[in-house]
Amino acid sequence: MAISVIKQILFILSSLLLLFSSVAIAEKNTASFDTLKILGWVEFVRLEPWGMKLSARVDTGANTSSMSAYNIEMFKKNGKQWVKFSFDFKKDSEERSVEIERPLLRMLKIKQHSGPSQARPVVSMEICLADEVREMEFDLVDRRALNYPILLGRKALAGFALVDSAHAYLTKAVCGHVKKKK
Q1: What keywords is this UniProt entry annotated with (predicted)?
Q2: 3-state DSSP assignment of residue 121
Q3: Which of 48, 66, 112, 169 has the maximum number of C-beta atoms within 10 A of its C-beta?
């Protein structure tokens, strides 16, 4: 008899705990949902600190973000591993290139649909997206043959944005940049 009462009390307490934790999680998700930005499937971004304005493909099917890079070289600086690479961009319909050096965060193994896996260096870059500067990780790969030099994956968008795949360029990438008069 006493064991039966204890089991009922434990069942009621467990049910109440489960109910209250579900409500708390729902309130947390609802609160953050209201603050998320809505992005299109393509958005303007700016590479900081240069302020280079580029189109980036937003791809929730990709886990990580990628940045176009070629002439990728690893080197040591102050005892730490760094990466140097070239990045192409357009300014006033003119092709330009900039050389970027960043600390190496890690090597990422990417599984290919066809062919062997690739090992790509991962660096951290500041990006202006939806009028907010954010630190994001990018794996480096030559994307010059693709339409967009930057691909934003799920990790870059998590807790920050939702994607409306029916639209493009829903936000601006201002972040304090002033357009120069010609």
Answers
A1: Signal
A2: strand
A3: 66
